[in-house]
User: Fold this.
Amino acid sequence: MMKLIDILMILLFPLLDSLPFALPRYWLFRDRLRLPFRYIVLLQSILAAIYSVVFYAINRGGYAAAEQWTTITRYSFLLVYLILAFLLIRDSFSKLMFTWLLFLAWQFFVLGNANYIESKFFCAVTDVYAYASWQFLVSRYLMLFGACYVSFVTLQVLEVSRTRTQLEEELKYADRSLQAQKKQFDGLATHMDEMRRVRHDLRQHLAVVQSYIDRDDKAGLADYIDLYKSQMPPDTRERYCRNDVVNAIICYYASLARDSGIEFEAGVDYPDDCPVSDTDITVLLGNLLENAVEACRQEAVERRLITLRVKRRGSSSLLILVDNTCVTPVMFANGMPLSSKKEGGGIGTASVSEIAARYGGTVQFEQNSEVFYASVLLQIVPGSN
Assistant:
């Protein structure tokens, strides 16, 4: 019959074999859990208790049963924990698998050291799950160092990829801003040429006007003035705000919207001394307006509308609101809209969130009454760099 201390060790082993390594993994993804974290802890505790009962039943069968079933039982429950992690955490397969493998390497390292110490100093005979050899211990250290090195290299590659993606996105919107500014410049140059022509012809027009006055022909003068006004070149330059970069990116997407038959309205009060960099505001506005234009293009309703509002809240905050017609239901995950182009959230919304966080702000997306609302609040300090 087993001693009380042996029973306690057998019951305690599965708890130490699972909970210290399973719960931190869920804590890392606490914002992407399908259940509240406290329920995750309860579920993991119940599973660990079942593990303990099974492990105890195996060891009651004696050394032969323990030798035959211990390893199978441990890896079976390891598979159960893995499946639960994929079911209870909302994230990409690659990220979940990478995290699980890293924690698994750490688990093998810790348990390997524990088994070595137990076998070397506390056990007269090596049991089923403890190995008192320096080769075994060295292999666990090599496993951990190898896992850490691979993880470091992988994270470096991911960081380089993220930075490259961010730079490509910034270049894309910067190029569009330059295109919009060039278009405005060309329009302004054409307008100036037209004004030169008008000023050159002004003497002839004044002579005609004087002839109507001399003949006291008011009706003819009125008709001539109407004709002259209709031939005046229109002021084609759009001006939403004094910041040329912000104005250019708004003009670009306003033009895209109108070319697609989408109404575009804007009210912009952008501070002259706003500390938000030109690159950041270009990417932020570009993403929001591009998403709005693309969403409206996909709608088949009669009236499609995009409304942009940029306004200051006090002296320390800048509020950016983009509303657009959106009849098609939008799926959300943790408050972020899921991309219709690919699985998961889009790169654009992630960039908006990242820029908002960089300025101590917040982002909110919601859909209500066939309208999609995007709100960004940035913390700004006038005159700061």
